[in-house]
Structures are given as C-alpha cells and as structure tokens.
Specification:
Blueprint lengths: L2 H24 L7 H17 L23 E3 L9 E2 L2 H15 L6 E7 L2 E8 L2 E7 L5 E3 L2 H5 L19 E10 L1 H13 L8 H10 L3 H5 L3 E12 L7 H11 L7 E4 L2 H14 L7 E8 L2 H7 L9 E5 L4 E13 L5 E12 L2 E7 L3 H7 L6 E5 L7 E7 L22 E3 L6 E3 L5 H11 L12 H9 L14 H5 L6 H14 L4 H7 L7 H11 L2 H5 L3 H5 L6 H12 L1 H12 L19 E5 L7 H10 L3 E3 L8 E4 L5 H9 L2 E3 L1 H9 L1
Bound molecules: zinc ion (ZN).
C-alpha cells in the first residue's frame, strides 16, 4: 500500500472505530461484534506501525497510553463546580419549586428532570474538538488530573463529532459522571475475590479508585463509562438557549447522555417524574441516588443565580437511604432457577430504600466466610440496585458464633439433588433437574415483566402450581385450565379466568422475550433482543453455528457455548416442541413468513374474551397470515367479538366469512 492510500485508510478506520464506540455507548445500539471491533483495531494498529508518520494523537489505539509517573496533578477549575442542594421529600421539592417561581415572578417554568447517576463528577475539556484535559470535581475549585484514565474510556469521544459539517466548539468543558455498570462491577468484584484481592463496596468506590490509578491499563479493566450532564464553558459554538438544547447538542457531539430525561411544565409532572424514576431504580444498569431537576432556560437560570455553594435553579431530589442496620435472625440456603445455592440472611424487618426488608443475600459461601457473619450479628445491609438487598458488613458481633459457612451435602429443598461445585468453587448447585424449587424459580422468571409478562403468575402462584404438581415444566403453563386453577387455594373464578387469559395472550410476545424467559445461562435481556433481531426465528437460531453466534454483538465465547449447549439438550428440544404445539410465537417482529395461514387476511372487530386484539393479530401473523384494518373483498376472515360494529355489516355485505371467537380458536389451533 502506498503512503497516500495508507493515510486515507488510517483516517477511515479511525472514523469507523469511533463510529462504533458512538453506536455502542451513545446510541446503545451496537452493530458489530466485539471480535469484529477488535479486528478493526488490530488492522489499524498494523497500518500505524507500518506508517508511523500517520499515527495520530487521537488514534483509538492510543486511548490507553503510558503510566503516569507520580501522583495526580492538581487542576484548577475555570468555573467552580458547584454542588446541588438536596431535598428528601416531595414537600421540600415543592418549596424549591415555589421559590423558583417566585424568583422568576411567573406561574410556570419548564424544568428538566433527569436521573442522578451515583458516580464520580468529572470535567472534560476539549480544544478545537480534541480532548485535552479531564479532571475530577475535587472540592469544586480544584480537582485531580485524570486525563490518562479518561482517555482510555471508550464512551468518551477523543474528538468531538461534527454534525453535517457544522463547527464543533472552539472550547468545551463538558461535565458529567464517571460510573461503572452494575454488571461490570459484579464481574470485576468476583474476579478480585477469586484473586484474593479486597472487594469494593459499590460501583462508585470502584470507579473513583480506577480514576486515580496511575496505570491506564489497570483502570481500563474496570470498564468505566461517562454520562454528560452539563457544561462549565462553551465557546465558539452556536448559541444554546436551554439545558435541554445543550443535552441534545452534547449527544450530537458524541457524548452519552442518559435517556431518562423529561421536561416538566407543572409541579405535578415533576413529582410524577420523580416517582417514575424511583420505580425504575432497581431495573437500571447502573446505580442512581436521585433525580436532578434544573430550570430549563439559561436566561431563567441566570436570573435566579446561585448561592456560595449551589445554584438556585437546580436541586437534587434524593431517593430514600439504601442502607440500614439490623439483626440477623437466621441464615438459610435458597435454591435458584439454575439450581445455584444461595445463602440468605433472614433479618429483623427494617425500612430500607422505601420498603421493609426482611432478607438479604449473602451471594455464596465464600462471602459468608469473608464477612464472617453469624446468626445474632447486627449487620449493615444495602439495597442499591437489585431488588434483593445484600449484607455489606457486620457492625456488631454476637457473643455466640455459629458456623454456617459449610456447604450442605444435599439440596435443602429436594433432598435428592447432589451438590456440585462450579470450576471456581464459588457457586454450588443442586443438579436434580426435577428439583421443585428450581422449576418454581424458572416459572417466575418466565412470567416476569421483561420476559413473557404474564400478570398473576408470581411467586405465590408458581409455588402452588409446582407443589400441587399441576405444572412440571414451563410449557405446562399454556395448558392450564380455569378449573385447574380454581382447585388451588386463593384462586376464585375471576382470578383464574384472568390468569388463563394472560397466559394465552402471552403466547404472542415474540422471540426475544421468549428467549430471555427460557433463562439460558449467560443470555440476558439485551443479548436475547440482539439474537432475536439477527435470527428472526427460533429454528434459525437453533440451527446457528458458533461462529454465527459470536458475530452477534454482546455474544462472547462463553455465552455462545452456553446457548449451543442449551439447544443441544434433549429436554430443551422437547420443551420447545411443546411450546410450539401450544401456539407460542417463536418469531421476532411482524416479519411475514410462510405458514399454515399464508395468503389469508384477518380483520378483527369487537371485544374478544380470551385475547387482546394485538395478541390475536400476532398469533395469526406468526402463522403467515396478514392482518387488515378494514374489511375489503380481499379479507379472508372477519373475527367478530362482542359489540362488533360496522365492520360486521360490511363483511356480511361482501360475503366475507365471519368467525366467532371459538371458530377463530379452532383455526388458530388446527
Ligand atoms: Zn434440589
């Protein structure tokens, strides 16, 4: 390759790689696999080594630079990084809002509510579009220079993106939070534990420690991320009038901005945004500790001004404390859906993060030993993100120590399953495939909101179905009758009918939710979505080879192997065949396929008893039919429920075949 071509190719690869970082971190929509990404990086590296004269300062291969030699340099912030006032109740929030309106002399002011990420505040400075400095907040006036570690974070653009050739700011000091995803944190902590290193209490501590490391290679292992939320300075850029406009501009310039944002006009909108965010808290990928509310217009912000310590135009609405101390009444062993034994501390009930907590996970037996926790101890518990709180440490030991860290010899539930350890000797599991507790947990997971979303099939119902031996496999759920359910405690006719209806409707959820619901090891929600998008149908996915699987973003070697192993099992194949017999949709999206009902068009009208209309539509689509919105002479069937209107008359006029619900069901299940 000649010099000119090499230079062009280096520039092109650089753009492509940074484009993939943008897709991954800002748009949350990766389009290539990790392996393909690494291949691009190494292709660039080999060109750069052949043509060192074109090795750019901001090459993606130079994100991770040399160690810095000594402790951190101090950086003076050009504009002070103020902290926010905290409020802890809706009344306090209302008082703040009243002060804002009074200060502005108006009855309304648009505010922006956004999640408050529990990370480390940092300021990133760009000159002529290039990252030149990154510093921690420190005391607000002076922070530490952490440029070498921030450069190593792929979610931070080394160069600002120019949108449609528009100019990037001459100087931009963008502010935001450096944080660690909970998943990355857990993996990182597990690895430390295995290596015998001290574990971190929470992702924020791990992120803060990582930023201060001298060696960026070490820091990069912690997979830090960055969300932009404000700016200290912006020069030589189009005029921005509001905080909202800034956030949109920041995203366009290449920064990740948290998607959980909303503009509120009234106080009630603001309050409901806060409670909505609080509800989302457990399901987020990262820790948050509240909501930040800012007056949107910069002109209004200027008018309100600031105190010595904090701006008057912004406030933090803090979520309830996530830690509490309480007494350990007992330590018991639970069996999860994959058979893993998890020791759990039963606690004297205590309020934590807004709910009463009476149990906390101890993760595994090594953790019991590490914490040296025993019955009768007072412990500090934390309900950070996960719904299940965890024990952080012992705060006061009881005088009697009862050793409980021993792994039981047989399964505490079925008494039949042998206990087998994984390679790391950290997790122990019951290997009895018919262990009732495992089935119960699998059912609950299958019916959970992110999976098949079957309302009414929670822990209590699952336990009854399993213990009464009505359900022996996940597939049995679809054969449940109202009569069977009514035979159970706490199921009246109404509740039973509702559950059967919810189960029937859930058949149309689609491939990605089904995959996630099956609870395959290492296949989470995101991977399920990407797999479903790529393979569209379950048979196609089951026929895929290892290479095709690892080509999907989020799918590494381990998860691909887990998937292949799962599909190779005889039980899996018979489970899937049974689900298919019950009419569970194994396709993603509304992709027309050839099927039993190909070439037919259905129109629905009126209320059906057993099916929501969209669910009924998905079911026939999965069999190859089309769904129309109006009756024409090309309509094959009009499915008419109660209170059918003009469509029914039109169908009669055109001689279109009309089906009642049970006739429809016959066709569906033929
Ligand atoms: Zn068991």
């Amino acid at each position: 390759m000649d010099k000119v071509a090499a230079q062009k190719e280096i520039a092109r690869l650089t753009r492509e790689i940074e484009g993939h970082n943008y897709n991954y971190y800002v748009l949350d929509n990766p389009v290539i696999s990790d392996a393909e990404y690494d291949a691009l990086l190494s292709r660039l590296a080999s060109l750069e080594s052949d043509f060192p004269e074109f090795l750019a300062l901001n090459s993606p291969n130079r994100r991770i630079g040399a160690k810095v030699s000594s402790g951190a340099k101090t950086v003076h912030h050009t504009t002070k990084m103020l902290s926010l006032d905290n409020t802890y109740s809706v009344e306090d929030l209302r008082a703040w809002h009243d002060r804002v309106l009074k200060g502005l002399g108006r009855t309304e002011a648009v505010c922006v509510a956004e999640l408050k990420i529990d990370g480390v505040s940092c300021a990133l400075t760009y000159e002529n579009g290039r990252l030149v400095m990154a510093a921690t907040r420190g005391d607000g006036e002076e922070g530490e220079d952490v440029t070498h570690n921030v450069r190593a974070m792929r979610s931070v653009p080394l160069e600002l993106r120019s949108v449609d050739g528009a100019a990037v700011p001459a100087v931009l000091e963008v502010r935001g939070e450096v944080y660690m995803d909970r998943k990355d944190f857990t993996e990182f902590n597990n690895a430390r534990q295995l290596a015998g290193d001290e574990v971190f209490a929470n992702p924020r501590n791990a992120a803060s420690g990582a930023l201060k490391l001298l060696d960026p290679v070490e820091s990069a292992r912690r997979k830090l991320r960055f969300f932009a939320h404000s700016f200290g300075r912006i020069d030589g850029f189009r005029a921005l009038d509001s905080h909202w406009e800034f956030l949109m501009a920041a995203r366009a310039l290449g920064f990740a901005v948290n998607n959980n944002l909303c503009r509120c006009t009234s106080f009630s909108e603001m309050a409901s945004a806060c409670s909505k965010f609080q509800e989302m808290r457990p399901s987020l990928a990262f820790d948050v500790d509240g909501v930040v509310i800012k007056v949107n217009l910069f002109a209004d912000q200027k008018l309100l001004g600031e105190t010595m310590k904090s701006p008057r135009w912004a406030v933090a609405y803090k979520f309830p404390a996530v830690q509490a101390t309480t007494l350990v009444k007992d330590i018991v062993v639970q069996v999860g859906r994959t058979g893993v034994l998890t020791p759990v501390a039963e606690l004297e009930p205590v309020a934590c993060a807004g709910v009463m907590v009476s149990r906390a996970t101890l993760h595994n037996f090594a953790e019991i030993a590490r914490l040296d926790v025993s019955r009768g101890d007072r412990v500090l518990i934390e309900r950070a993100g996960d719904v299940i709180p965890k024990v952080v440490k012992v705060v006061e030991r009881s005088s009697e120590r009862i050793a409980v860290s021993k792994v039981p010899a047989d399964c505490p539930v079925c008494r039949e399953g042998f206990i087998c350890a994984d390679e790391g000797m950290v997790a122990f599991r019951c290997i009895n495939p018919e262990c009732p507790k495992q089935l119960e947990r699998r059912l609950v997971h299958f019916a959970s909101r992110g999976a098949m979303d079957i309302e009414g099939l929670g822990e209590a119902a699952a336990a009854q179905l399993v213990n009464n031996r009505i359900v022996r496999s996940v597939a049995d759920v679809f054969g449940l009758s109202i009569e069977q359910l009514m035979g159970l405690e706490s199921f009246g006719p109404k509740k039973a009918e509702k559950l059967v209806q919810a189960i029937q409707n859930s058949r149309a959820r689609g491939l990605s939710r089904l995959l996630f619901g099956l609870g395959i090891a290492n296949i989470g929600q995101k991977a399920s979505e990407l797999l479903a998008r790529r393979f569209v149908s379950l048979p196609a996915l089951m026929a895929a080879e290892a290479g095709e699987l690892t080509a999907v973003p989020e799918m590494g070697l381990v998860s691909s192997q887990a998937l292949l192993k799962f599909f190779a099992q005889e039980e899996t194949r018979s489970l899937i065949a049974r689900l298919a017999d019950y009419g569970v949709v194994m396709l993603e999206g509304n992709i027309p396929v050839s099927g039993r009902l190909s070439g037919k068009t259905f129109v629905f009208t009126g209320e059906l008893v057993k099916y929501q209309r969209t669910a009924a539509g998905s079911l026939v689509k999965a069999l190859g039919a089309e769904v129309g919105s109006t009756v024409t002479k090309h309509t094959s069937f009009l499915v008419a429920g109660a209170a059918a209107g003009s469509k029914l008359e039109k169908a009669r006029g055109l001689g279109v075949r009309i089906l009642n619900e049970s006739e429809f069901e016959e066709i569906l299940n033929a």
